[in-house]
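testing teh design pipeline on a random one, pls ignore if ur not involved
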C-alpha cells in the first residue's frame, strides 16, 4: 500500500505546489526573463548537488544522440517560463493558467502530423470544445481590456512552448527523469543568460527582503524540489492516473486567484475554463480494455 500511495502523494503535492506559483512570481520585481534564469540556476544547482551526493553520473555515452533534443527542449522550457511569468503581469493568475493549459490541445492536434497518429472523433470533439472554452475566456466578458488580451496571448505563447517540450520529450527515450530535468535546466540557462544581458540586465539589487524570500521559494521549492518529486512520481504511476492528477495544478491556481488574490472571473470565463480543463482531461482518459 505504501508503495502505491507514495508516488501518488508526491504527484498530488507537486501539482499543488505548481498551482501556487502565480502569487510568488508577482512578489519578485525583476523581469520575466531574469526570473526564469534565476529559477533555472537555483534548480540546476539543487539537482546537481543531489546528483553529486547520491553519486549519480549522467551516462553521456548512452544518451549522446538525444542530447541535442534535450538542449532544444530545455531552451523551450526556459522560454515557456518567461512567457508564463509575463502573462501573470498582464492578466489574472486564473486566466493566464487556463490559457497556458491549452498546451495539451496543441499536442493533440500536432501528434497526428509528427507521429502519424490517427485523429479520432473524440480528439476532434475535445479540440473543438476546448477551443470554444478558450474563446469564451478571451472573447466574452471582461478580461482586463487590451492588457488582459496581451496576458492571454503570453499565456498561449507559453502553451506553445510547453507543448514543444512535451512533443520533444516523446523522442527522448533513454534519459532518466532527473537527468533529463538537470540537462534541460542547463539548456534553459544557456539561452536565458544572453537574453537577460541583452535586455534588462541583472537587477537583483532592486529586490527587497520579500522579493528575495519569494525568489528562493520559486527557485528551490517550486522548481528544484518539486520537479524532482514530479519526475520521480511519473516513473511509478500509470500515464492516465498521472494525467488526471496533473489537473490539480490549474484547479489550485484558479482557486488561489479567486479566493486568495480576489481576482474576478466572469460566469463565461468559469464556463470556458471548465470546457478547457474538462475536455482536455477527457481526451487523456482512455476506457479500460474489456
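output:
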Amino acid at each position: 500500500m505504501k508503495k502505491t500511495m507514495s508516488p501518488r502523494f508526491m504527484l498530488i503535492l507537486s501539482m499543488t505546489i505548481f498551482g501556487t506559483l502565480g502569487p510568488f512570481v508577482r512578489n519578485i520585481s525583476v523581469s520575466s526573463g531574469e526570473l526564469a534564469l534565476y529559477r533555472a540556476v537555483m534548480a540546476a544547482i539543487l539537482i546537481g548537488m543531489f546528483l553529486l551526493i547520491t553519486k549519480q553520473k549522467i551516462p553521456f555515452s548512452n544518451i549522446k544522440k538525444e542530447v541535442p533534443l534535450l538542449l532544444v527542449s530545455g531552451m523551450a522550457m526556459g522560454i515557456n517560463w518567461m512567457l508564463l511569468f509575463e502573462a501573470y503581469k498582464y492578466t489574472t493568475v486564473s486566466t493566464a493558467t487556463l490559457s497556458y493549459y491549452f498546451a495539451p490541445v496543441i499536442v493533440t492536434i500536432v501528434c497526428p502530423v509528427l507521429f502519424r497518429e490517427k485523429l479520432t472523433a473524440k480528439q476532434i470533439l475535445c479540440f473543438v470544445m476546448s477551443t470554444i472554452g478558450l474563446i469564451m475566456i478571451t472573447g466574452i466578458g471582461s478580461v482586463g481590456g487590451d492588457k488582459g488580451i496581451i496576458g492571454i496571448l503570453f499565456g498561449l505563447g507559453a502553451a506553445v512552448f510547453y507543448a514543444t517540450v512535451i512533443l520533444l520529450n516523446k523522442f527522448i527515450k533513454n534519459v532518466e527523469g532527473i537527468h533529463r530535468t538537470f540537462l534541460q535546466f542547463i539548456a534553459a540557462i544557456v539561452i536565458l543568460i544572453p537574453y537577460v544581458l541583452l535586455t534588462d540586465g541583472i537587477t537583483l539589487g532592486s529586490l527587497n527582503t520579500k522579493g528575495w524570500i519569494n525568489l528562493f521559494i520559486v527557485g528551490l521549492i517550486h522548481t528544484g524540489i518539486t520537479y524532482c518529486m514530479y519526475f520521480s512520481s511519473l516513473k511509478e504511476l500509470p500515464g492516465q492516473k498521472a494525467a488526471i492528477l496533473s489537473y490539480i495544478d490549474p484547479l489550485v491556481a484558479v482557486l488561489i486567484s479567486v479566493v486568495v488574490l480576489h481576482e474576478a472571473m466572469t460566469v463565461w470565463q468559469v464556463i470556458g475554463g471548465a470546457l478547457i480543463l474538462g475536455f482536455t482531461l477527457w481526451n487523456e482518459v482512455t476506457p479500460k480494455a474489456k
